[in-house]
Write a structure and sequence with these properties.
The protein has 8 helices and 4 strands; from the N terminus they run H-H-E-E-H-H-H-E-E-H-H-H. The protein is mainly alpha-helical.
């Protein structure tokens, strides 16, 4: 599946809203529920590790932009120390345990609860910060025509090794191409990506730089603001 061309060629006006994939919400709810039951022992083990290694709270909660840009609270396992005692940058705050949780994507397990609630889908564009909404081009903003996902096309095509523009292009490509067959192929590819630990970090960054807009130079990462 080819990656779309540069954003300079993107349409000035949004394309018609694609029809939702039949059964996608039912598929998400059933599979997320089954997975939550199966991984409950693993959730408890990771929660204990985080409590011992980082203390309370065990969960990281943050407002993200969901379907049609509506805010919701995403839930993940904590991977960083709080920004204090001179610890400001992501590289300083990220602990060895946190690096391992991110590398294995175990920090994402609690987001299955977001899927069960209907805030997210198993597959879709990754949920980003609400303050990014006015920084997207018209084409990039189309990523919010669908629910955000635990994984997505950008995650299996390079993850954080991609530039913001490449990731957002892939998000829009998913919006235009989505169906259950594509979702299943992305879920299978995600398992391979996690096992290989591909694209965990952006070049020269502990996580991913803040998105400042397509035509602006990215600033160095300062806080745990953008998910892997």
């Amino acid at each position: 599946m080819p990656v779309p061309g540069g954003l300079a060629n993107a349409p000035e006006h949004p394309l018609p809203l694609p029809r939702p994939a039949p059964g996608k919400r039912v598929f998400d709810a059933i599979l997320a529920g089954v997975l939550l039951v199966l991984v409950t022992p693993l959730l408890l083990v990771v929660a204990v590790l985080v409590m011992v290694g980082l203390g309370r709270p065990v969960l990281f909660r943050q407002c993200r932009a969901g379907l049609h840009g509506q805010p919701f609270e995403v839930v993940k396992f904590r991977t960083m120390r709080p920004p204090r005692h001179g610890l400001v940058g992501d590289g300083d705050r990220l602990t060895p345990l946190g690096r391992w949780l991110r590398a294995t994507s175990l920090d994402e397990l609690p987001t299955l609860w977001n899927v069960l609630r209907g805030d997210m889908s198993l597959v879709g564009p990754r949920p980003l910060l609400p303050e990014y909404l006015d920084r997207y081009t018209t084409s990039q903003a189309r990523r919010h025509e669908v629910r955000p996902g635990v994984t997505g096309l950008a995650q299996v095509r390079g993850r954080n090794s991609l530039s913001w523009e490449e990731k957002l292009d892939l998000d829009v490509q998913y919006v235009d191409s989505r169906d259950l067959r594509l979702d299943l192929s992305i879920l299978v590819a995600t398992a391979r990506t996690v096992l290989r630990r591909d694209g965990i970090n952006a070049a020269g960054s502990a996580t991913m730089p803040e998105f400042l807009g397509t035509h602006r130079r990215p600033a160095p990462p300062q806080r745990d603001r953008t998910p892997a």
